[in-house]
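Renewal narrative, Specific Aim 1. Our central claim is that a sequence can be written position by position from structural information alone. The example that follows is taken directly from our test logs and has not been curated for this report. It begins with the structure tokens describing the chain, in the order in which they were read.
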């Protein structure tokens, strides 16, 4: 009997130790990883997160070896399960599988075989990610609003009478872009480029504002988004250029020959640096604001992990600063849309600057 009792007590102690280890493991899992939270919000993903709940999005994959396949991202169970021979990488399974974090990034979908990445299978991810979905929603809302306003103008509202509703809200903005951006930089060609400038301004603005909704995607903080806008602006600038513009680049007037060997490469590089500056400026500013907001909110949970009282004490300061930065971000949303549009107009104006001055001199002569 004593031996049996000792044996029973030994098993009970082992069970308690096991429960304690599981408890410690759960505690470690529940520890807040600020880096993961920041990158989960800033980077693109295959699901939306609203107040602790996930909204799965469609996954569309093509592989030359397997063909097309589609399913909902919930089939991956947050990276814990494989589905149809595919797995989505997360910080957890990247570490678990011993993969190189520099080579394999979270939210990447790879082909697997027996729990190991299959390098013989090429995967092209054509999924409707949260950046794509949100951009479509923002663009749809933008088009609906503009068509509604255009219909009112056709009916005479805002022409023979004062503008109403959304007209009175957007008309001053459109007038501002025309008078303060297009006219000073584009002169007599303002009407030709005004539709593009207005489209760029409102497209960036509405995506900036959508990105401030809790749980939404940071579309304008995605480098792919800003690269496409920068490339389009670059194409418009190049098609607007003339011989005078290229002459000033490859043969700057009034510059000594020795200096030209230094100045010409710099001027030529500036052709590509201008759109690159547009890309980086918008991307960096929108990412920085979101990171600051997340860090300020996370201070509550960081302090709470140290001490519950410290967490409650940090809450008013954290919330106060978060609201302040959030208001600043609303201003930045408008400001970055304006800056991108303004610089685009400046660069386009520089591309046909010689032609513009020639026309002005010709008009002054007459």
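The sequence written for that structure reads:
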């Amino acid at each position: 009997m004593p031996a049996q009792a000792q044996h029973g007590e030994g098993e009970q102690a082992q069970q308690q130790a096991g429960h304690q280890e599981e408890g410690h493991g759960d505690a470690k899992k529940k520890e807040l990883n600020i880096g993961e939270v920041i990158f989960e919000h800033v980077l693109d993903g295959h699901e939306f997160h609203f107040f602790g709940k996930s909204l799965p999005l469609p996954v569309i994959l093509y592989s030359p070896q397997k063909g097309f396949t589609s399913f909902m991202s919930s089939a991956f169970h947050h990276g814990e399960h494989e589905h149809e021979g595919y797995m989505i990488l997360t910080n957890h399974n990247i570490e678990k599988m011993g993969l190189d974090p520099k080579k394999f990034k979270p939210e990447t979908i790879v082909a697997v075989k027996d729990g190991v990445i299959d390098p013989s299978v090429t995967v092209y991810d054509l999924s409707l990610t949260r950046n794509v979905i949100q951009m479509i929603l923002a663009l749809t809302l933008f088009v609906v609003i503009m068509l509604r306003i255009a219909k009112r103008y056709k009916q005479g509202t805002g022409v023979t009478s004062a503008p109403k509703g959304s007209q009175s809200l957007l008309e001053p903005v459109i007038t501002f872009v025309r008078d303060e951006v297009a006219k000073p930089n584009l002169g007599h060609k303002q009407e030709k480029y005004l539709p593009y400038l207005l489209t760029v301004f409102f497209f960036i603005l509405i995506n900036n504002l959508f990105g401030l909704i809790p749980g939404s995607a940071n579309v304008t903080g995605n480098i792919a988004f800003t690269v496409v806008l920068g490339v389009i602006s670059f194409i418009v600038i190049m098609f607007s250029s003339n011989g005078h513009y290229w002459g000033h680049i490859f043969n700057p007037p009034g510059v000594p020959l020795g200096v030209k060997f230094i100045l010409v490469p710099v001027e030529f590089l500036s052709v590509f640096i201008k759109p690159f500056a547009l890309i980086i400026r918008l991307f960096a500013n929108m990412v920085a604001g979101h990171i600051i907001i997340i860090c300020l909110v996370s201070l509550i949970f960081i302090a709470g992990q140290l001490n519950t009282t410290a967490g409650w004490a940090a809450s008013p300061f954290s919330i106060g600063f978060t609201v302040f930065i959030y208001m600043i971000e609303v201003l930045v949303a408008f400001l970055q849309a304006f800056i991108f549009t303004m610089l685009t107009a400046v660069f386009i104006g520089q591309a046909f600057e010689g032609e513009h001055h020639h026309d002005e001199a010709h008009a002054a002569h007459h």
